[in-house]
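Researcher: Here's a chain I'd like modeled. Treat it as a single chain, no partners, no ligands.
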Amino acid sequence: MKKFLFILFIFFTLTVQSISMSRADTIPFGLVDDHLNLVISASDESKTINFYGEVLGLNRISDIELPEKRKMIRYIAGESELKFIIRNKDSSLKESNFNNEIGIQQLTLFIPIDRKKEIIDKILKNNIKLPKFINSKIGSIDISKTLINDFDGNKIELVFLTDELDNYNFNTSGFQLNVTNAKITGSFLRNILGFKYIKNEENQDIFKIGKTLVNLNEVKGSSKKRVGLPGEIEGYSLVQFVVNDVIASRNQILMNGGKIHTEPYKIGDLAIIMFIESPDGILFEFGAALVK
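Model: Modeled as a single isolated chain. Structure tokens:
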């Protein structure tokens, strides 16, 4: 476990030193910026670069070399970092069919609609089946949504907009969680993690921290879970909080009634991290640099 935590967070100091310290005062736990990140276990480096960089056109930031000849590839979605840990070819992970499983289920990207044709052309060029689009309108703003899968089967919702809305704007990203009980998980997000409950422009229930939106999909009768560290499961594995003080965050989470999955652990003199878990076992990482 400790070895994997090192692999997960060795990049942390490099990341946090480049993050702006400006943030909204309402953001909980002393986040160093007003968004969360997503950690993904990916099977193939070149396919990751092609899909997220070429097809979706996301901005790539510096890679991080990890122990055991592994690599982390990073892209910016809205303002969230997507952190792809490229797993070894011979690694054995928990198998998944990604359907109706409890866990982090979907990433949502908000994109100017004038990029829609460009992305469709790249989807077709890469022999990806053209998805169906659902079109709607809020006020004078046109919305066109579709759902596609990357090469590992991860679901990505693309929301094309003619203009920004209060909650749907181009520096925002969204994560969907599949849960057994939306009311219980919603209480966890609000009362333990400090998310705000809102109704978005489409009158949907959303939980929000800064520029990160989380919606809950209640899966009835599911006995399958895809939760755990990137070294244990494939696909979306962790929602990451980057904070100023992990110990203070831990104490606040316990005061709020939360459950610690992995107690704070120092990575040499570089960083300190911990993991907490939702009622369904979905993991949330908290990390802070020790070197300021």
